[in-house]
Design goal:
CATH class: Alpha Beta
Largest sheet: 6 strands, mixed
InterPro entries: AAA+_ATPase (IPR003593), ABC_transporter-like_ATP-bd (IPR003439), ABC_transporter-like_CS (IPR017871), P-loop_NTPase (IPR027417)
Order of helices and strands: EEEHEEHEHHHEHEHEEHHHH
Number of strands: 10
Pfam families: ABC_tran
GO molecular function: ATP binding; ATP hydrolysis activity
Shape: globular
Keywords: ATP-binding, Nucleotide-binding, Transport
Bound molecules: adenosine-5'-triphosphate, magnesium ion
Strand order of the largest sheet: 6-7-8-3-9-10
CATH topology: Rossmann fold
Protein name: ABC transporter ATP-binding protein
Number of helices: 11
Structural class: alpha/beta
């Protein structure tokens, strides 16, 4: 069913540099959430903090009733088994072929036999379309293949929580479309809790149940997809529309006067853009019961919008 992750008042800094502060959100069990934010706002740091690779300064991360920021290293090691993580750079071992890379967590964390390991590795490689590339080294394959190998490795332990750091960067649009479908199908099949960091707005609009946005050291918003898409909060609108006009600048944050001027200029293109249709699990994949609840939630929100003045 996946597990819920409850983050409260989380703050992280490196030296004097505050990365983000007072971040509170709940990743609902079994749902797909997306985290957006300009480059450098600490999205990767957030994922690494969730798995316990980085320690926050303040706040808590509660999983299955335990605050993982307070666990001893040995207990943390156990909790990490709940996670599958696809790091931003794939983080494959350069000297190991894809088969051994993907088998690594199984050999490290389980006592499965080599034949059992083989079955799982080949199943996951098939799932991400890498069958036949078992003997290749990471340096011999394309960036897209490395991403998919990282994804296969994130899946081998049947994780309850899967964190993806930009699974779609460096992929061509067709592969991104396939990857999105793969994510939605996977979520329907294994029903784990997903958190995806992406810069791809089209994906963010159609894949998740929930969207969050980090900006200026704060979590600007986190909530149901439809709510964020309907939001008229300037940062959310700018990001979900991929516009230059708005509070987010190229190198540094813009000053308030410029933002004001730009916001006055832009045409009303609706809140955060037209509602996007949700990507559904492919044919033959049974939808878990929560899909009914989500459909109801969307209909309610939609209804509320229609009736509001
Ligand atoms: N281990 C570290 N020590 C010191 N500073 C760090 C460390 N890791 C990250 N940072 C800093 O934290 C900030 C956020 O980095 P992070 O990689 O999380 O950004 P991001 O939102 O993932 O960006 P991108 O979209 O480009 O991947 C950056 O200023 C970075 O330099
Ligand atoms: Mg990053």
């Amino acid at each position: 069913m996946g597990v819920e992750i409850c983050v409260e008042g989380l703050t992280k800094s490196f030296g004097h540099q505050v990365i983000w502060q007072d971040v509170s959100l709940t990743l609902p069990a079994g749902e797909v959430s997306v985290m957006l934010g300009p480059s450098g706002t600490g999205k990767s740091v957030f994922l690494k903090t969730l798995v316990g690779l980085l320690k926050p300064d303040r706040g808590s991360i509660t999983i299955q009733g335990r605050d993982i920021t307070r666990l001893r290293e040995r207990d943390l090691y156990e909790v990490r088994k709940l996670f599958g993580v696809l790091f931003q750079d794939g983080a494959l071992f350069g000297s190991m072929n894809l088969y051994d890379n993907i088998a690594f967590p199984l050999r490290e964390h389980t006592r499965k036999s080599e034949s059992e390991i083989r079955r799982i590795v080949l199943e996951k490689m098939d799932m991400v379309g890498l069958l036949g590339a078992e003997g290749k080294l990471p340096g011999e394959i394309s960036g897209g293949m490395r991403k998919r190998a990282g994804l296969a490795r994130a899946l081998v332990l049947d994780p309850e929580i899967i964190l993806f750091d930009e699974p779609d960067s460096g992929l061509d649009p067709v592969r991104v479309a396939y990857l999105n479908q793969l994510i939605v199908d996977l979520n329907a099949q294994i029903d784990a809790t997903f958190l995806i960091v992406t810069h791809d707005i089209a994906s963010a609009r159609q894949v998740p149940d929930n969207i969050g946005l980090l900006f200026r050291r704060e979590l600007v918003m986190f909530g149901p997809r439809e709510k964020l898409l309907a939001s008229d909060e300037p940062v959310v609108r700018q990001f979900l529309n991929g516009r230059m006009q708005g509070p987010i600048g190229m190198a540094e944050e813009k000053d308030a006067a410029q933002v004001e001027q730009e916001l006055a200029q832009i045409d009303e293109d609706g809140p955060a853009g037209a509602p996007a249709p949700r990507l559904l699990p492919g044919p033959g994949i049974t939808r878990p019961p929560r899909w009914e609840a989500i459909a109801r939630r969307e209909a309610e929100l939609h209804g509320a919008e229609v009736t509001s003045p």
